[in-house]
Amino acid sequence: MAAILAIGDEVLRGEITNTNSTFLAERLFDAGLDVCEQRVVADEAADMRRALEELAHRAAVVVVTGGLGPTEDDRTVDVAAELLGVEAEPHSASLEAMKKRFAAHGFELTPNNLRQVRVPQGAEALPNGAGIAPGFVVHFAGCAIYFLPGIPREMERIYLDHVAPRLRAQMAAQGVPVAAVRTWHVYGMGESHIDHRLAKLLEDIPHATLHFRTDAPENHVKVVIRGSDTAKNQELLGQVDRDLRKRIGAGIYGTDNETFALVVGQALRTSGTTLALAESCTGGEAGQMITSEPGASDFFLGGVVAYSNDVKINVLGVKAATIAESGAVSEPCAKEMAEGARRVTGATIAVSITGVAGPAKERDPSPSGGSDKPVGTVCFALASAKSTKAVSKLFSGDRARIRRAAAYFALDLARRHSQ
Amino acid sequence: MAAILAIGDEVLRGEITNTNSTFLAERLFDAGLDVCEQRVVADEAADMRRALEELAHRAAVVVVTGGLGPTEDDRTVDVAAELLGVEAEPHSASLEAMKKRFAAHGFELTPNNLRQVRVPQGAEALPNGAGIAPGFVVHFAGCAIYFLPGIPREMERIYLDHVAPRLRAQMAAQGVPVAAVRTWHVYGMGESHIDHRLAKLLEDIPHATLHFRTDAPENHVKVVIRGSDTAKNQELLGQVDRDLRKRIGAGIYGTDNETFALVVGQALRTSGTTLALAESCTGGEAGQMITSEPGASDFFLGGVVAYSNDVKINVLGVKAATIAESGAVSEPCAKEMAEGARRVTGATIAVSITGVAGPAKERDPSPSGGSDKPVGTVCFALASAKSTKAVSKLFSGDRARIRRAAAYFALDLARRHSQ
Questions:
Q1: Could B15 and A26 be called an inter-chain contact, meaning their C-beta atoms sit closer than 8 Å?
Q2: Is the pLDDT of residue B414 over 90?
């Protein structure tokens, strides 16, 4: 059992979201430790001490974040030392590193700076590869308590550099096997549909659990196998992978760290396709997405954001008559947008997006707003050397969700064309 | 004192981030209640009960989220009933509403559906304006415990509809004054710089606290005044507002719910300016941002995403010689991009962005990647009827952060031009 304690008034008051605990919870769980509690308390010695005592009695591992900074409000080292009945003292390697760093920048050390390189006597320091304050680990009431800074970048670095390997070693020493974990990323299929297809997926797999997460319009399916044999866990995960791919099919676009933009980009790159975009209601979101991963210049040429009808007509060559007859949110308009984007950029393929992102009260009575179409209506087209094909969708949700769904759908058209 | 308890394995395992607790913490604090603890426990009766008992003894108000759904894993109603020594029973108004809703969709009620409209006997139900399961409030150990669903949309709706008014009434009955709260949004000034300018801002204001939040490239400054006189709190807030605006000046672009896109849009709309964009390294992010608020068609015409040099040359009319001599990431190129975007769209002004978003290892040795410029270098230009002016910036951070900073800077150029 593990527990997570975040220390800090900013989290307690809702000024920042506690993403540190999300990071730690996911990694502890995947490492094979059940997290029994997450807690947030103030930068107050009494509150911190009570939380540490309670959690140390409930869990074998506690990970604490926050309160290791240079100010008087940062009391974590003192509370940890007091809990152990020892003094806090500077960690010499961290002190030397800080001195070097300050000298290089010409900064002067203040007494407060000295505060943040202290650890409790006898504690094992965990060097901070991304900042100044070291983390440290102490043992109390049969529990290993890891203390990490509250700054996410520093916390993550120390966790990955020092805590994760120690937990792995500790669990190996205790004969705890390594869990097999994989996350499949699904696009174009609703959660209930996925759920239905995955019925009894893990029926014959002992010690396996299935977890869903929706990050619209994506769904993520995670499987964790925690059997007693590390090799067997991996073997079973391979079996689950094959079964899951049979059930979900092309809905799975990638796993683990593969983003949608990365996978679309790989399909374009591999097939030697170059892409241009013509965006109306998304305002540039599809272009932003496809360029979010580095290296997009291999296949993405650019495009036109044709928010107004004049830009559709004058830059993309959409016919005024098309807009007058069918509306700007129509398949004929989408086709001419895609063809125009392909023509002006010279790309192998071009994809267009034109729709009504809403909200309803903002719908424009002029043809440009597509007033005769319901909010969520989005028309797409893909133009290639061979043909131009259009398709329409009705997305639900608010403006941001509709636009995001449209950007995904447009990029997915490009991906499917390139496969 | 208030406390927040989230119930749910998904949060505990790090599958979802606990944004519910952030939402509640911020609102409880702004309402004048200090939050002493946030906690997350599993969907296990024993864990839930212990947490409820401990928190009820520490706080006068506890807000609980999660575990009110239809499945057997949703145990919150049963645990609350057991804590009070009563039975759980259907809340008739919620039951009727659910029956109507299911009939309208032609769904059949299952026994599980009946589970989610139950509340403990004697509890006051809090109707769910955004879903099925009602919230409820019970009194235990001198503490008011509010139970809300875990789905954020439903939780927020019930909190705003029923919990916030009850807390206000309760605090008014106790003679607790209403806090005055405002958040100022700052762009173009670092946190340490803001901090320096705000030194002693609240020195003469009793019961006032200052809170920072960075949401790069924005900084948010919040002031909460919790004096004993509601009217006086508002008066003092007005005084702080004037002082703060004097100290920060034009760095403040808006307050509370005003987004950057909204404020840029208002400046363009009010001045009768129409805007076009020419984006390279941002890939469409500035266009996505300016169209994130509805009504952008009043002032935003569109633009060109000129990711490749060919698009810069062929669509925007940038001279090949300019790119050959100065590079694609240069002020001369930025100027020709902005002028081209203005020419092809007919906008009053056009703003261009061309830069090196990184990461370093992805830098392209060809001129298109601007290989001779350090990562983070971004050149901008603003073209109007009168002139074209360019400016260069060096942003730090990863690819996403550099691109976001560039999109903000480009839109800010348009805002400042329109003021």
A1: yes
A2: yes
pLDDT of residue B370: 46
On whether the A180-255 domain is CATH 3.30.70.2860, my answer is yes
Q: What is the per-residue pLDDT across A335-348, written as a single tens digit (0 to 9) for each?
A: 999 999 999 999 99
Q: Using CB atoms, pick whichever of A12, A17, A39 lies closest to residue B17.
A: A17
pLDDT at B128 over 70: yes
Residue identified by tokens 């706080």 is: B59
User: Mean pLDDT over residues B223-238, rounded?
Assistant: 93
The pLDDT of residue A178 is 85
CATH 3.30.70.2860 location in chain A: 180-255
Q: Among A13, A51, A288, select the one facing B285 at the smallest CB separation.
A: A288
In 3D space, the residue among A267, A265, A256, A272 whose CA is nearest the CA of residue A290 turns out to be A265
Q: What is the CATH number of domain A260-418?
A: 3.90.950.20
pLDDT of residue A386: 97
Q: Are residues A400 and B295, on separate chains, in Cβ contact within 8 Å? A: no
Residue range(s) occupied by CATH 3.90.950.20 in chain B: 260-418
Give the number of A-B residue pairs with CB atoms closer than 8 Å.
252
Task: List, as one string, the DSSP characters of B384-409.
Answer: -SS-EEEEEEE--S-HHHHHHHHHHH
Does the domain spanning B2-173 belong to CATH 3.40.980.10? yes
Contact A344 B288 (CB under 8 A): no
What is the C-alpha separation between B48 and B77, in angstroms, rounded? Answer: 11
CA distances to B28, B382, B391 from B409, in Å:
35, 11, 10
User: Which value does ipTM take for this structure?
Assistant: 0.87
What is the structure's pLDDT at A415?
A: 97
* DSSP calls for A158-178: HIIIIIHHHHHHHHHHTTPPP
Q: Does B22 touch chain A (CB under 8 A)?
A: yes
- Most A CBs within 10 Å, among B259, B305, B398, to test the A interface: B305
B352 has a chain A CB within 8 A of its CB: no
How sure is the predictor about B361, in pLDDT bands with cuts at 50, 70 and 90? Answer: low
State the DSSP string of A7-72. Answer: E-HHHHTTSS--HHHHHHHHHHHHTTPPEEEEEEE-S-HHHHHHHHHHHHHH-SEEEEES--SSST
Cβ within 8 Å, pair B23-A36: no
Report A:267-296 residues touching B (Cβ under 8 A): 276-277, 279-288, 290-292, 294-296
Supply the pLDDT for residue A280.
Answer: 98
Substitution target from B12, B47, B215 for chain A, most A beta carbons within 10 A: B12
Residue among A352, A360, A355 nearest A370 (CA)? A355
Predicted local confidence at residue B2, as pLDDT: 97
Q: Do A304 and B287 touch (CB under 8 A)?
A: no
Whether the CA torsion A395, A399, A401, A405 is positive or negative: it is positive
Please, what is the average pLDDT of chain B? 93
pLDDT single digits (tens) B155-200: 999 999 999 999 999 888 888 888 899 999 999 988 778 888 999 9
Tokens representing residue A149 in the block: 């800074």
Q: Where are the alpha helices (DSSP H) in A222-259?
A: 230-248
What is the mean pLDDT of each successive set of 10 residues along chain A, which is 419 residues long? 95 93 94 93 95 96 93 90 96 91 83 88 95 95 96 95 94 85 93 86 92 87 90 96 95 95 98 98 98 97 97 98 97 98 98 94 46 90 98 93 97 96
C-alpha span between A23 and B15 (Å, rounded):
9
**Which residues from chain A sit within 8 angstroms of residue B304, using beta carbons?**
302-305, 315
Domain with CATH 3.40.980.10 in chain B: 2-173
Name B381's bridge partners.
Answer: B352, B390
**Distance in angstroms (rounded) separating the CA atoms of residues B21 and B39:** 9
Set of chain A residues whose Cβ sits within 8 Å of the Cβ of B277? 284, 305
